[in-house]
Every structure is written in structure tokens, then in C-alpha cells.
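Reopening this one. Same input as before:
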Amino acid sequence: MSEKRLNNTIFLMYWVAEKYKKAHNISTRQFLELNQKYAILNYVAECPDVFDCMTDEEMVEEIDQYAAGFQRNC
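Same output, byte for byte:
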């Protein structure tokens, strides 16, 4: 992975986390607990190109759908 792509992925992970926290009015600690349970940031890192073209609202919805699907599969 190029340095530019890595930096973009890290930024997207940060951005998604911040937008998700704001949308659901949760703390960083609460987000990290969700991340530990559902591997949210790994999901973002696996497909940064998808998240790169989403609006903030779409990112939050994607994470909500991902977590809901994760719960069904467990």
C-alpha cells in the first residue's frame, strides 16, 4: 500500500469514527467498545475506496447496516 493510500485510509477511519460518534451521540469510549465488538475500523480499512465516495450520512448508515449484519451472523 502506498503511503498516500495508507494516509487516506487512516483519515477515513478517523472521519467515520467521528461522524458515527456525532450521529449517535456517543463518546469515544463507547465507539471503541463498538469497534472492539464489530471491528468497524477494520471494515473501513478493508474498503476505503467505498467510504471515500460516501457522504457523512451514508458512512453512518453503512456502519449501522454492517453492525446489524454482524449481529445476525453471530
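So the earlier flakiness isn't reproducible anymore. For the record, The chain has one domain: 3-67.
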